[in-house]
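Our platform keeps sequence and structure together, in a single record for each protein. This encoding replaces a full spatial description with a residue-level series of whole-number codes. We quote a single record here, exactly as it is kept in our systems:
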Amino acid sequence: MQFAGRDEQRKSTLLHAIGAAARQLAPDDRAPSRGAAAAAWRALVETSDQLQGSGVVALGRLPFVDDSLLERLRDEASRMRPRRSSRKRRSVGAAGPVLESLACSRHLRRAVAHALGVSVELTYHAVYELDPPSSTIGIHLDAPGYPFVYHLLVDQTHPPGRAPRSTLVAHLPESRRPERVRVRPGESIVLRGRGTLHSWDALPDDQHRVLVAIGFGPVVRP
């Protein structure tokens, strides 16, 4: 912390190193629970929290996220899907007019600010995240454009009789056990993604998922 000080470049370098170290300590996305590895893990979780802040808030189904908006987002995500999408790993699609409009919505900004308890501003980073069956999103810290990240589960296809299942796993300094937040289609969460080591549970082999990720940051006053 003293090394980083107020220098944002040093802070970013430290956070990058924390993310890399976390992947080495938890290659199977399970935090070590014993010995020196567990102590090192706690140090990573606590240091990233001190540098950037951590936490996750489940928002449920927000009033302005209606079926019409979800349908338009699904359609746009399909159009923005990269031509060479991976069948095993997440693909990222650029924002189109529908996602851009949601990102700039004052209703969304107010919902995010209320959930976090701080004033926020848009970072102008917004993407579609397209996850194929059986894919896993391993433990990581989010990129600099996503100090706070708003996730909306737009769609999760599933066969009849099987419920969609998406679970965010967040590692927080106040708990020895990770916080598991289940999200259903149409529901949202806000995550302090830059300072929270987190992952997503593997998708079932018969489901795929469409998420949006919209970046926000704290309002910086002169």
Remarks:
- Residues 8-25 form the longest helix (18 residues).
- The beta strands are 56-60, 91-94, 120-131, 137-140, 148-157, 166-171, 179-183, 188-191, 197-200, 208-218.
- The CA atoms of residues 64 and 107 lie 8 Å apart.
